[in-house]
């Protein structure tokens, strides 16, 4: 077994400024390489190399604590081995492309969720070295080797920097049709659901792991014993369909001290409802894909009367199945179409309100996901149990004087202070109607065909004093709702004809 390497005494402390300098220089090096075009190439390249660098430190630390621990990556494939010699140029490219990456893809562990060998193999299944110059790759590796992940404070500092890189990755991904949940919304949803040590938290569409990291931090703050801290580690579950977000999530977990997450790279919808129920969890925090479509094989995993190609409805059904426990609870981001959809949508909402208590609908203003999409969105909060006789709605306002969120002026966590104060804690006690909050009898919702697209009755709706841009946005949204309903009717007619 390769002994842990000793840090050079001349290596200076990894301060935030030094880390920023290392990352800046690393990106400057990558800009010179002809194989990397834009951030969607550079950041993934940086991410998998950083992952191997961080993994090496984590495994060195585990070996020091447990002499019987066997690293996932051993011998000449360890970062501390192949980066310390004179390997450069074409020889380095040959080693990375023909030996290192194939070896990492072929690692085999126990098959249990969280096994580090299986995790590494999953991560590198679709990873490729995109750099064309072995000399520039050697320079990049030398830069990243300056980062010290061994110290907890350094890891905390690197986590902040990594989150800024994730944001840039998300900004770049927005151009290709993907968008991610703003951190303030993730934090608010997590705090309102309030997962506790010992509970199992799932994100079935985890992306880069934001909800799971937030849940881990939230539960860790509640833990008071070593056993509770271990339970927090054991309580993280997640799935992600795409390889690059999965890699970024694993890096995110490493940097935040989540070293045994039970997460897999797979389509969470690619199992039957019965299998989902047999693998239940206590909490689901998620923002499933909007507007996606699933193939017939995936649709076949769902009850015949509730099959649809629309991803969001399949995910909502999957969440209900996963929360088939006495204390199950959920916060899920959904587009406006979920609120007003009839047909299969109404049937899914009926199932939701039959076995679960939909207690709160948080209506978010336009632009929360700007600049990636202007689709209006909402958060559904529900618990396992009997539906109460009313549903609360809360309309989250834009900051005063603002017409929209933007890339430079995004949603801020402090804006949720009024809603958090109104919420009433874990038991939701003392809620009252305000200019922003109102309740609707469940009987009215049922009578309307489970329409949840309800306007705030406590806010003045004087058209003469409303901004033209707001009126236009409302008209566009109305037209969008009509188009969605017509498309839904067209699909149902086609399905009936088959």
CATH topology of the largest domain: Rossmann fold
| Count of individual helical segments | 19
SSE run: HHHHHHHHEHHEHEHEHHEHHEEEHEHH
CATH class of the largest domain: Alpha Beta
- The Cα radius of gyration reads 24 Å
The CATH H-level superfamily of the largest domain is Vaccinia Virus protein VP39
Give the terminus-to-terminus CA distance: 62 Å
- For the secondary structure, the number of strands is 9
Average of per-residue pLDDT values: 84
Main sheet characteristics: 9 strands, mixed
- What structural class do helix, strand and pairing data support? alpha/beta
Q: Strand order, biggest sheet?
A: 3-2-1-4-5-7-6-8-9
CATH architectural label of the largest domain: 3-Layer(aba) Sandwich
Number of domains: 3
**Poorly predicted segments:** 1-10, 174-178, 462-466
Strand content: 5-15%
> Helicity range of the residues?
40-55%
Q: How would you describe the shape?
A: globular
Outline the fold blueprint:
Layout: H1 16-31, H2 39-65, H3 79-82, H4 89-105, H5 116-123, H6 134-144, H7 152-174, H8 183-193, E1 201-203, H9 210-222, H10 226-234, E2 236-240, H11 243-255, E3 262-265, H12 273-277, E4 283-286, H13 296-299, H14 311-322, E5 329-335, H15 336-340, H16 344-355, E6 356-363, E7 377-384, E8 390-395, H17 417-423, E9 437-441, H18 442-447, H19 468-497
Parallel strand pairs: 1-2, 1-4, 2-3, 4-5, 6-8
Antiparallel strand pairs: 5-7, 6-7, 8-9
Helix pairs in contact: 1-6, 2-7, 2-11, 4-6, 8-9, 14-16
Question: Outline of this structure?
Answer:
The protein is α/β, with parallel strands linked by helices and 498 residues long. The chain has helices at 16-31, 39-65, 79-82, 89-105, 116-123, 134-144, 152-174, 183-193, 210-222, 226-234, 243-255, 273-277, 296-299, 311-322, 336-340, 344-355, 417-423, 442-447, 468-497; strands spanning 201-203, 236-240, 262-265, 283-286, 329-335, 356-363, 377-384, 390-395, 437-441. The relative contact order is 0.08.
């Amino acid at each position: 077994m390769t002994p842990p390497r000793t840090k050079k005494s001349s290596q200076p402390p990894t301060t935030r400024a030094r880390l920023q300098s290392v990352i800046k220089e690393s990106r400057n090096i990558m800009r010179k390489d002809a194989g990397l075009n834009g951030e969607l190439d550079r950041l993934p390249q940086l991410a998998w190399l950083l992952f191997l660098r961080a993994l090496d430190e984590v495994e060195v630390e585990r070996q020091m604590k447990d002499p019987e621990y066997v690293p996932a990556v051993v011998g000449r494939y360890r970062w501390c081995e192949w980066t310390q010699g004179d390997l450069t140029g074409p020889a380095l490219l040959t080693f990375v492309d023909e030996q290192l990456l194939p070896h990492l893809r072929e690692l085999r562990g126990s098959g249990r969720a969280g096994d580090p060998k299986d995790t590494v193999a999953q991560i590198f299944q679709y990873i490729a070295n995109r750099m064309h110059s072995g000399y520039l790759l050697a320079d990049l590796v030398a830069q990243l080797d300056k980062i010290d992940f061994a110290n907890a404070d350094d890891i905390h500092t690197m986590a902040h920097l990594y989150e800024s890189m994730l944001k840039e990755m998300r900004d770049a991904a927005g151009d290709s049709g993907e968008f991610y949940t703003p951190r303030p919304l993730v934090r608010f949803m997590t705090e309102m659901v309030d997962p506790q040590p010992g509970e199992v938290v799932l994100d079935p569409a985890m992306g880069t792991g934001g909800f799971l990291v937030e849940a881990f931090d939230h539960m860790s703050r509640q833990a008071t014993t070593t056993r509770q801290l271990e339970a927090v580690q054991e309580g993280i579950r997640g799935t992600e369909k795409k390889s690059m977000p999965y890699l970024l999530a694993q890096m995110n977990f490493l940097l935040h001290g989540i070293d045994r997450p039970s997460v897999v790279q797979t389509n969470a919808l690619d199992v039957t409802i019965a299998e989902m129920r047999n693998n239940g969890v206590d909490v689901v925090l998620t923002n499933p894909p909007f507007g996606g479509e699933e193939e017939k094989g995936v649709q076949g995993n769902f009850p015949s009367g509730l099959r649809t190609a629309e991803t969001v409805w399949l995910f909502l059904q999957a969440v209900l199945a996963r929360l088939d426990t006495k204390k199950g609870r959920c916060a899920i981001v959904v587009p406006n179409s979920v609120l007003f959809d009839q047909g299969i949508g109404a049937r899914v909402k009926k199932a939701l309100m039959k076995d679960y208590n939909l207690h709160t609908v948080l209506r978010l203003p336009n632009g929360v996901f700007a600049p990636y999409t202007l689709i209006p969105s909402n958060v559904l909060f529900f618990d396992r149990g009997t539906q109460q006789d009313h549903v609360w709605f809360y309309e989250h306002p834009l900051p005063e004087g603002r017409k929209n969120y933007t890339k430079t002026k995004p949603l801020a966590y402090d804006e949720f202070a009024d809603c958090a104060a109104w919420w009433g804690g874990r038991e939701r006690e003392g809620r009252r109607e305000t200019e922003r909050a109102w309740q609707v009898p469940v009987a009215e919702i049922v009578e309307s065909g489970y329409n949840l697209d309800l306007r705030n009755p406590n806010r003045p709706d004087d058209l003469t004093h409303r901004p033209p841009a707001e009126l236009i946005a409302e008209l566009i949204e109305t037209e969008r709702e009509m188009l969605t309903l017509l498309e839904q009717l067209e699909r149902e007619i086609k399905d009936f004809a088959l």
